[in-house]
What does this fold into?
Amino acid sequence: MNHPPASTEPMVIVVSGPSGVGKDTVLNRMKRSGGSMYFAVTATTRPRRSQEADGVDYHFVPRDEFQSMIDSGELLEWAEVYGNLYGVPRNQVREALRQGRDAVIKVDVQGAESIKRLVPQALLIFVSPPSMEALERRLHKRSTESASDLKRRIDTARQEMDEQRLFDYVVVNDEVGRAADEINAIIAREKAKTDRETIGL
It folds into this structure.
C-alpha cells in the first residue's frame, strides 16, 4: 500500500506552559538531539541571571530598545510578564521558515494565544507539571524570586493550567528526556500529515 508523502512545509511550533514547569530544560534536551529545527531566542527586558548567556537563553535588551522593536513591528508577539517585557523577533522565525526549517517558539500562555491568531497553522504544545504541588516545589527550589513574586507566579500558574484546552497537545514534564521525546514524536506525527499549508509572516 502506498502512503502519501509527508508534508515538506516548515512548521511553527509553540511550546508554552506555566513558569517553572521546565520549558527551557526540555527544549535544551531537544536541541541536543540534533535535527534542523530552529529555536527562536526571545528578547526580554528582564535582568540576566548569572547562569544565562545573552543571545543564547534570551536577547537581553534595554526597555527603550524593546519599545523601538514594538514600534517598528519587529516582534511576532510581545507581552509584559511580571513587570518585564518579552517578545519573539519576527525576522528569526521568518528566516527559519524561508530556509525550510521548523521554528520552535517558547512563550507564555498569553503569547501562545497571540501567535495562534497570527499563525492559525501553528502547532501549540502545552508543557504541564505532574501536579500543582510539584510545580510549587520547583518554583520554591529555584529561589530566583521574592516571596511576593513567588506567590504571584504560583497564582498565575494556576490560571495558566486552566488554559490547556487552547492547545493541540499537552505533555507532562515528569522526566525531561521523556517529555522531549514526546514533543519530538508529536512534531514528527504532525509533519507526516499531507495537508500542511505554507506559512507566511
The radius of gyration is 17 Å. The beta strands are 12-16, 38-39, 43-44, 59-60, 75-81, 84-89, 103-106, 123-128, 169-172. The chain has a mean pLDDT of 89. Residues 12-191 form a domain with the Rossmann fold fold (CATH 3.40.50.300).
